[in-house]
Structure formats: structure tokens, C-alpha cells
Amino acid sequence: MEPLSPRVGRAVLARRLCAVALVGAGTAAAALAGAGIGLVLGGRPGARRGLARAVTGGLQALGPTAAKAGQLVGARRDMIGPEWADALSVLHDRSRPMSRRSRERALARARAEVPALAEVEVTDVLLGSGTVGCVYLGRHGADEVAVKLRRPGVDRVMAADLRLLRGAAALAVRLDGTGGRPLADLVDHVSAAILAQTDYTAEADHHRTLEGHLAGMPGVLIPGLRPRLCGPSVLVTDYVPGLGEAPPGGFSATAQAVAARRALRAVRRMVFEDGFVHCDLHPGNLYVHGNGAVVLLDAGYAVRVREATRAHLDRFFRAVALGDGRTCGEIMVETALEPVDDARREAFVSDMAAHVAAHSGDGTVFTMAEFGNGVFELQTRHGVHSRAEFVFPLSALLVVEGTLRDLMPTVEIQNGF
Q: At 113, is the pLDDT very low, low, confident or very high (cuts 50, 70, 90)?
């Protein structure tokens, strides 16, 4: 595996490992206490709420990498239940904000990188607080803008965390041979994507790419980028007033359904046409706005999908829509990390055919959560593991489905194929 940048030495890794162990131990103790108190005050639901709040606090204390994992899990309300989803939802855009001192350091660094940022008045008004950075309301001339500042030192912390994860994955390969390779492949793929979120120059490139690809899609808005004001640790976009604020009485069911359909069309275009996928469309990055428009934010966590992989994904979902499970199984064998012998191939393809049949046909409600988890279970059972570049878009669809189902419970990812 290639080393991650920025480079971190052994001493830094050792200190980070000790910190993770200490915070982990403290989180375990807090989780037990929270669950116990919750059980006494509110029974089993209270215990779950207490446990979830303690774990969420621990994830924030562990730092941006753990909090990012919590974000992804928290988007799956249908899988983890309301108590866990409500607790983890603070990680979407309500993580602990930077202290005033950290904010001043972050702003000073950003202005040193981008002299033109001196033209922007950055206020104390916090628009959002994520795991990697915080967003503040700013003024550039007569315009209001959103100024995203990277947390000081977050790049080094994430680099250390991901080095530790990669080391664990490499150890799994040595101990388990081919059995550990799927984990190593996934960690390697995810590490590059996650660490890229600390480089706002890369995020600005992602932002421009999405703007270009989704331009002209009715009701899909990506705030305009201010490239001259962006740098490695600062990103400035147009400010969207009222974002996240529901009208009196809340958004109508019609507006939510329209927004969900528009977001789904945008996601399908990313995955199956453009090959550039926003992988982080949790509720803090996807908003209903106005009368059914949808606003997409924070393009830092995005990946490019090769043409060959897009073709496989397109064939796979068309086969799902047609109930052709054997083709789905064959595609997954074609994208496997390791060669699959004939006996395992036939067993896997047969089980995939049964799995697709159980999730397709008239009267069947298709959910990526149930279907995707079943696919991953079959892969583990038969030892047929797809390359991460094929799995990654599927995981992104799992995340966005959870977000869209909050808006429109009947939305189905595979519709339209």
C-alpha cells in the first residue's frame, strides 16, 4: 500500500493509537453508564438512547475519522432504528464546532494561503459544523457567502487514523491470505477518498465537476463556487438563504416527494452516466428547498467510477429490475478480486438468482438496505468479493436511499432501469 500524505511518523502513530485506546475505554464506560441510567428512567428505549448518545460523544472525541464512520451509519435510520439515528444525526452538520481560538487559527491559515480572502468578512454565524470543517456566514462585497474552514490539524489526525486502518488491513492479509484481501482493497479505496476531504482544493475540483455534470437538471441546485477565494484549507460558495429551514407547518408531502425524485435522478446520473459519484449524501448534505428543489452540498467525499465499472453497474441494476438474478451473479463474479472456481461460481450465481427473485416482481418493495445487505452476506458466505470500485457506488446508494426515504418512504433506487 502506498503511504498516505501528509506523512506521519511512528511516534505520531503510537501517540494516536494510545489516544484511541484511552478514548475508546472512556466511551465504553460512558456507554455502560448511559445505558444503565436510560434503562432505569425509560426502559429499553431509554437504554438505547443513553447508549447511542454516549457512543456519539465518543465518536466525536475520537476525531474526524470515527465521526465520519458514524455519519455513514447514522444515515441508515431504517437499519439502526430511531434512537441511534437521532443520536448520530448530530454528526451530519452539528458536530462540536471549533473553539474561537481554533477558528481564528483556521482563518489565519486560510488567509495566508489565499490573500484574496482578505476581501471577505467572515462572521461568527455558524451555518454548519462537520467532522472536517465548519461553515460560517461571510460577506464578499454585496454578496453573502458560505465560508468553509478546515479544522486545524485534522489532516494529520485523519492521516494517522487511516495509516492505522491500513496497517490493520495489511495484517489481515498476512494472517488470512485471500480472506483478508477484500478488507484491504476496501480500506485502500476508502482511505484515499476520505483523506481527500481534508484538501479543499480537491473538493473545489469535485464541486466544479458536479456543477458541470448536473447543470440544467430541473430543481437540482449546487451553490456556486467562488474559485478565487478557495485554497487547501478554505472553500467559499454562494450562500443559500433558508437552507434547512422548513416553512411553517413543514414541507408538504408533495414537495418532499418531488425533491426525492429529483435527487434520485441526479444520483442515477452520477453513477450510471457521468461516473463521478457524491458518496456522502446524508441529511446534512442533501436538503429540500423551496417548493421541491433539492440542494446538494459538500462534494469532498466523491469518487470517479471507471467506464467498465459503470457498464457493470448499469447491467447489474437492469438485471435486478428484470428479476434476472443469474446475470447479477455472473456480473459479481466478473468483478471479483480473486478467480472463482466453477463449483463456487454456480453456487453463488444460484443463490443470487434466489435473492433477486425474493426482492423483485409485482407487489415487492425494493430497498437497497435489505437487498444490498443480502448481497454482501452472500459474497461473504461464498468468498466471492467484488473489487471496491464496484462496491463503493453500491454503498453510496445505500446512504442516499436512507436520506431519500425520510422524504419519500416509497422511493425505490432501482426504478427506471
A: very high
Are the CB atoms for 352 and 332 separated by under 8 Å? Answer: yes
Distance of CA 330 to the CA centre of its chain: 28
Asked whether the beta carbons of 274 and 213 are under 8 A apart, the reply is yes
How many Å apart are CA 219 and CA 216, to the nearest integer? Answer: 9
- How many angstroms separate the most distant Cα atoms in the chain? 68
Q: Quote the cell numbers at residue 180.
A: 483478508
**Mean pLDDT confidence for 54-74:** 77
pLDDT in tens, 267-287: 989 988 899 988 888 888 899
Q: Cα–Cα distance between 132 and 199 in angstroms, integer? A: 10
CA–CA separation, 403 and 313 (whole Å)? 21
Q: How far apart are the C-alpha atoms of 67 and 79, rounded to whole Å?
A: 18
User: Hunting for cell 479505496 — which residue is that?
Assistant: 189
pTM: 0.79
- CA 212 – CA 273 distance, rounded (Å): 13
CA-to-CA distance for 382 and 370, rounded, in angstroms?
18
Looking up cell 478557495, which residue turns up?
A: 230
